[in-house]
Design a protein that fits this description.
250 residues; two-stranded antiparallel sheet; single chain; globular
Length: 250
């Protein structure tokens, strides 16, 4: 089972591991695109105003451009510790026991505008690049990633649970992947998509999937396993699930 997580714009700073080594990352067939984008980001960082425009950053975020300038020399850390924010707070990687962390490293993968997809244990530097970005040297990211990334994800054995957000799902389609929509239900049984707490619920779901004693092999077995962990989830299509959020969310 592979659980595809969205990345986060915010990244933990620093790291204790050596600089980026593409050959040490999972899914090595993606390395040519990774190298092209990394070089393009470093080159673009030499022109701070152009970087701010391309990355849609404000003047107060010039430090993000400085991070990109140091992509090849900055220290690294595992992807599951690099990404931060609401989803990753709910995932709570620091709170995982050693055996759970080993499972999470194998089962969880992070979609990335720069790296395509990463295993949780892959060591990466801090950087700034969003899925909807267009770099002057490369054009829209979808045109680069789709031909390289889609075959990699389609070839992944077992269930693929796709929790990516829209801009990252657009970088590569995964036919047959299990998708999850977070919904709330009113007193009349009407369901609406949850927006504000969406990331937190997906983070909790990812934590459950990462730590299950056994990997589910079918959608039905996934639903049963998640239900035993206390998360209400329903099947609304062949590969579409709805996760029922608590009352008052939206």
């Amino acid at each position: 089972m592979l659980v595809l997580l969205p990345p986060s714009e915010t990244k933990a700073p620093g790291g204790d591991d050596p600089p980026l080594d593409l050959d040490g990352l999972s899914f090595p067939t993606l390395n040519p695109v990774r190298a092209k984008l990394a070089d393009a980001l470093v080159e673009l960082a030499g022109d701070v105003p152009a970087s701010l425009r391309a990355l849609k950053l404000s003047e107060r975020q010039r430090d993000e451009v400085a991070r990109n300038a140091e992509l090849w020399s900055a220290p690294t850390m595992p992807a599951l510790r690099r990404y931060t924010g609401v989803l990753y707070d709910a995932l709570d990687v620091p709170g995982l026991r050693k055996a759970e962390l080993a499972k999470a490293g194998k089962r969880l993968a992070v979609a990335s505008a720069l790296f395509g997809v990463l295993r949780g244990t892959d060591r990466i530097p801090a950087y700034r690049l969003a899925g909807g970005s267009t770099l002057p040297a490369t054009g829209p990211l979808g045109g680069l990633w789709r031909p390289a990334l889609e075959p990699v994800l389609v070839a992944e054995p077992g269930l693929v649970v796709d929790l990516r957000s829209g801009p990252y799902a657009a970088l590569a389609r995964v036919p047959g992947a299990v998708t999850v929509r977070v919904v709330s239900e009113d007193a009349h049984g009407r369901r609406t998509t949850v927006s504000h707490h969406n990331k937190a619920y997906k983070g909790r779901l990812a934590r459950v999937l990462a730590t299950l004693p056994r990997e589910p092999s079918t959608v039905d077995s996934l639903i049963r396993a998640v239900g035993r962990a206390g998360i209400a989830i329903d099947r609304v299509g062949e590969c579409e699930l709805e996760l029922a959020a608590g009352p008052g969310t939206g």
